[in-house]
Amino acid sequence: MPSKESVQEILKAQGFTLDSTSGFGDAYKLDLGNGWQVSAYCSFEGNPFAGDVDKDTYEDIDVHLYDMIGTSHICTTDKKLEEKLPDIIRSLRANSDDDEILKCPKCKIRYVNPKTPSEGQKWKPFLSCSGMQIVGRGQNKGVLCDGISKKLPAVVKY
Questions:
Q1: Could you identify which of 51, 55, 116, 145 might form a hypothetical disulfide with 107, taking C-beta atoms 3.0 to 4.6 angstroms apart as the criterion?
Q2: Beta strands 155-157 and 69-75: pairing type?
Q3: Global pTM?
């Protein structure tokens, strides 16, 4: 498992700053200078609900555009993070420079976010419109938009 100290050094070397921390993990951010930010969320090792958390060790590092837009890049070791982070930042910068690739292909208004299976579920992650939420009641019940993007991978694990 990646140590908090080594991950902080790697992230800071690429220009990230600590944005927030909680009982679940730490969030870092990097301003891309084009109106977008990259977020790196680092989950603490352990179960915070059981009070069994190691705040000096991260389970994984999830790097993505702010607000979980587009592809989620997950690094499970500090070595992979150090090796892949420059390429991940370049990829996210390229996607954010022309953000049409991040928009829902159906409504062309909202951005796409990764949807991932919970443990035990067997479906593949995908990018869906942020409008994929149930609205209304009774006969008027439906979704704002059910668009799915296949232009980018939803999750890339390293």
A1: 145
A2: parallel
A3: 0.88
